[in-house]
Amino acid sequence: MDNSLFVRYCGNPILTADDWPYSCNTVFNPAAVRLKDGRTLLLCRVEDHRGMSHLCAARSTDGLTNWIIDLTPTMQPDIENHPEEIWGVEDSRITFVPELDRYAVAYTSFSGSGPGVSLALTDDFRSFERFGTVMPPEDKDAALLPRRIGDYRAMIHRPVGSIGAGGAHIWISYSPDLRHWGSHKMILEARKGAWWDADRIGLSPPLIETSEGWLMLYHGVRSTVAGKVYRVGLALFDLEQPERCLRRGDPWLFASETDYERGGDVENVVFPCGTTVADDGDTLHMYYGAADTCVPSPHSDLKTSRVARRIRPR
């Protein structure tokens, strides 16, 4: 597998706190989706000067320039109705669900109990139907699959500790109604030892359906004497049994290289939360948080089917 498949856009970073219409500390970890009118929407995590986060939408015709940013936060914590959001809402992932004709936003709600997975539906990114916590703390890095698996909805997420079988691994769970979740199964395990993904792993963008299977971009973390290093790798899962991993790449695909990735509030972090697919149905663009500080994008001619075929068999 070639680890130069993604090519960074020459105008990176594409969004920073300086672009925001109101005061904030940093802007990073954006969910991404192409709207029905063809524009790209990024639902960015915005950290205020207290250290707490909310979500704010930015829209662009070409997905790279001339961003129109909501003048006020798009999704604020709703502490009165959802006390699990008292310390902020973070790191969303967006899945368009054709059966519902709505966008499912899975996000991390943060409180004294720790981070948990919350879910909301929207059709306009103005108002949101919140479902509240669907995966209790400690859990995060969640995204809904765009279609049913059999009779059930499926969600990828990352529990840790005793809930997560003594580590930080990637799981799948199923639901008949988006509210009640069960049939929990681990589908990808953090490796041990010297591997780049030895300490913990988590889903990056939502799974991408390809002819070869569900393509997963996931982040892996390794602890070093200088701190934690985040990188991105690939795995492929069966289309009808997504708990079954078909292939997993050994080398990482994407890692910190530039100044804006190596330096910031949290150094050496590349953390994708969103991808979009171009009109050809196959060209992939990735959006990520760099050093917990800004939003860059690899702008490439990467083909999803090509990537899936090139993952090294397990």
Quick overview of this protein structure:
The chain contains 2 helices and 21 strands.
Per-chain topology:
Elements: E1 26-34, E2 40-47, E3 53-60, E4 68-69, E5 89-97, E6 102-111, E7 114-122, E8 129-135, E9 139-144, E10 153-159, E11 170-175, E12 182-188, E13 200-203, E14 208-210, E15 213-224, E16 227-237, E17 245-248, E18 254-255, H1 259-262, E19 270-277, E20 283-290, E21 302-303, H2 304-310
Antiparallel strand pairs: 1-2, 2-3, 3-4, 5-6, 6-7, 7-8, 9-10, 10-11, 11-12, 13-15, 14-15, 15-16, 16-17, 16-18, 19-20, 20-21
The percent range for helix content is under 10%
Gyration radius over CA: 18 Å
Q: Give the assembly state of these chains.
A: single chain
Number of helices: 2
State the end-to-end CA separation.
13 Å
Average residue-wise pLDDT: 93
Overall 3D shape: globular
The number of strands is 21
Question: What is the percentage of strand-forming residues?
Answer: over 45%
Q: How would you sum up the major sheet? A: 6 strands, antiparallel
Secondary-structure element sequence?
A: EEEEEEEEEEEEEEEEEEHEEEH
Spans where pLDDT lies below 50 across 5 or more residues: none
Q: How would you classify the helix and strand content by structural class?
A: mainly beta
